[in-house]
Amino acid sequence: MNTIFAYCTCESSEQAKLIAREVISKRLAACANILPKMTSLYWWENAIQQSEEVVLILKTREDLFDQLNKLVLSLHSYKTPCLISLQIVSGNPSYLEWILTETSSHSKSS
Questions:
Q1: Distance CA 60, CA 14 (A)
Q2: pTM listed for this prediction
Q3: 3-state secondary structure 90-105
Q4: Distance from C-alpha of 79 to C-alpha of 62, rounded to nearest angstrom
Q5: Rounded to whole angstroms, how far apart are CA atoms 51 and 86?
Q6: Ranges of the chain with pLDDT below 50
Q7: Closest C-alpha among 35, 82, 87, 89 to residue 57
Q8: CA pair distance 48, 56, nearest whole angstrom
Q9: What torsion, rounded to 10 degrees, do the Cα atoms 101, 102, 103, 106 define?
């Protein structure tokens, strides 16, 4: 089973915390990191936009990404939120096992 980071940008720390709590409570991720006050520049609606955003990083399993994506989209305020998966190639084996263990409870309760 592969572990991933799910990288998401949010409009506020409150939104990131809401999403993180829901995702973790449903065991779709083992952990969330919230990094406040990122400046984003991007092309949107025919112009360069700039906004302050918050980064949300969720640690989970690759096979849970579709379910996690659906939940995040249902909670997110953006029309087209950034939510991508980044494969974890290697890491502390006991930490990676912890991610698998904490998210495996999702399979048992579904």
A1: 21
A2: 0.91
A3: CCCHHHHHHHHHHHHH
A4: 24
A5: 24
A6: 108-110
A7: 35
A8: 23
A9: 100
Residue 4: CB partners within 8 Å, gap ≥ 6? Answer: 59, 60, 61, 62, 65, 85, 86, 87, 88
**Amino acid making up residue 24:** I
Q: How far apart are CA 85 and CA 3, in angstroms?
A: 10
| Per-residue pLDDT at 107 | 54
56 touches 68 (CB < 8 A): no
Identify the structural domains of the chain with CATH numbers, from first to last.
3-105 (3.30.70.120)
Chain mean position to CA 4:
10
User: Burial of 66 by CB count in 10 Å (0-12 exposed, 13-18 middle, 19+ buried)?
Assistant: exposed
Listed residue (7, 1, 61, 71) closest to 33, CA to CA: 7
At residue 59's C-alpha, the angle toward residues 57 and 61, to 5°, is 135
